[in-house]
């Protein structure tokens, strides 16, 4: 078995655990105005600084049974879930596209995970993070990764314009906000990664995910009305990474047309 068949999923999976742990911290601290980059990790209940053995992704949560070793307060399950998703993104990217393409895909997934976590927690898609997602997408295109940079640029502009037009039309027709201001920007940033051709599929998949979420809430006994807020950025993020997986598993289009030469028999006189 070639080494890279298992090496890339393992490396990206380990990185995914680390990034997932950091993203969980970002999703909790940033909306509260606290920097995720300064200060030691601490218990959310008693503010006790966490030791190194309490910071091992997934493992610490399991061995501590989801509770702080000091005060016994429950650890927010978002830590475990986000770390698990970070692991899944890294492994999936490494399996789907071993090599630098998989590294780029994993970075795409982790940035989407951070945005989805913030949108789910605080209905907030920070411009800084969305801009970083767009810039990284264009950078990978300039490095030669498929889709080409032209398709990414059109996707960035067209994606933003399309959802911004939908939001403006809804606001004009209904007299209230239908989409958050960050959703068109996120859709444009996704276009910078996947290209304009993939955007209709992303939007369709996001709508289906949203419909499934609403049905799940209904089945759980919660009523959802037309005025209830749903974090559409979460749906867009999940749909975008799913479409990226499909792109990664699809053979690239031929860069040049195949030329077939037909030799005619020489006329005998």
Automatic annotation (TrEMBL):
Record's keyword terms, sorted: Cell inner membrane, Cell membrane, Hydrolase, Membrane, Methyltransferase, Multifunctional enzyme, Protease, Transferase, Transmembrane, Transmembrane helix
Domain Prepilin type IV endopeptidase peptidase: 107-214
Domain Prepilin peptidase A24 N-terminal: 14-91
Main location: membrane
Signal sequence coordinates: none
Example GO BP: signal peptide processing
Cross-referenced InterPro entries: Peptidase_A24A_bac, Prepilin_IV_endopep_pep, Prepilin_pept_A24_N, Prepilin_peptidase/N-MTase
Catalysed reaction, written as an equation: Typically cleaves a -Gly-|-Phe- bond to release an N-terminal, basic peptide of 5-8 residues from type IV prepilin, and then N-methylates the new N-terminal amino group, the methyl donor being S-adenosyl-L-methionine
Entry-linked Pfam families: A24_N_bact, Peptidase_A24
Gene Ontology annotations for the cellular component aspect, listed alphabetically: plasma membrane
Entry's localization field: Cell inner membrane; Cell membrane
Topological relation to the membrane, as annotated: Multi-pass membrane protein
EC number annotated for this UniProt entry: 2.1.1.-, 3.4.23.43
Membrane-spanning parts: 6-30, 84-117, 123-146, 153-173, 193-218, 230-249
GO terms assigned for molecular function: aspartic-type endopeptidase activity; methyltransferase activity
PANTHER family noted in UniProt: PREPILIN LEADER PEPTIDASE_N-METHYLTRANSFERASE-RELATED (PTHR30487:SF0), TYPE 4 PREPILIN-LIKE PROTEINS LEADER PEPTIDE-PROCESSING ENZYME (PTHR30487)
Function as written in the Swiss-Prot or TrEMBL entry: Plays an essential role in type IV pili and type II pseudopili formation by proteolytically removing the leader sequence from substrate proteins and subsequently monomethylating the alpha-amino group of the newly exposed N-terminal phenylalanine.
Family listed: Belongs to the peptidase A24 family.
Protein name: Prepilin leader peptidase/N-methyltransferase
């Amino acid at each position: 078995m070639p080494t890279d068949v298992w090496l890339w999923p393992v490396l990206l999976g380990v990185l995914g655990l680390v990034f997932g742990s950091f993203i969980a911290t970002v999703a909790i601290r940033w909306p509260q105005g606290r920097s995720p980059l300064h200060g030691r990790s601490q218990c959310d209940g008693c503010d006790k600084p966490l030791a190194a053995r309490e910071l091992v992704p997934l493992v610490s949560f399991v061995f501590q049974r989801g509770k702080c070793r000091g005060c016994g307060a429950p650890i927010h399950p978002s830590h475990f879930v986000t770390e698990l998703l970070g692991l899944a993104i890294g492994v999936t990217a490494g399996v789907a596209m071993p090599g630098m393409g998989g590294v780029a895909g994993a970075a795409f997934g982790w940035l989407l995970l951070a945005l989805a976590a913030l949108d789910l927690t605080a209905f907030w898609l920070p411009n800084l993070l969305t801009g970083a997602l767009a810039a990284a997408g264009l950078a990978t295109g300039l490095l030669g990764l498929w889709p080409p940079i032209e398709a990414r640029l059109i996707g960035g502009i067209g994606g933003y314009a399309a959802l911004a037009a939908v939001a403006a039309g809804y606001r004009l027709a209904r007299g209230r906000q239908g989409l958050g201001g960050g959703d068109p920007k996120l859709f444009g940033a996704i276009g910078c990664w996947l290209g304009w051709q993939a955007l209709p599929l992303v939007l369709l998949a996001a709508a289906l995910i949203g419909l499934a979420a609403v049905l799940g809430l209904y089945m759980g006994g919660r009523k959802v009305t037309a005025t209830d807020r749903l974090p559409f950025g979460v749906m867009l993020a999940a749909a975008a990474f799913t479409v990226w997986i499909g792109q990664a598993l699809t053979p690239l289009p031929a860069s040049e047309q195949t030329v077939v030469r037909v030799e005619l028999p020489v006329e005998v006189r």
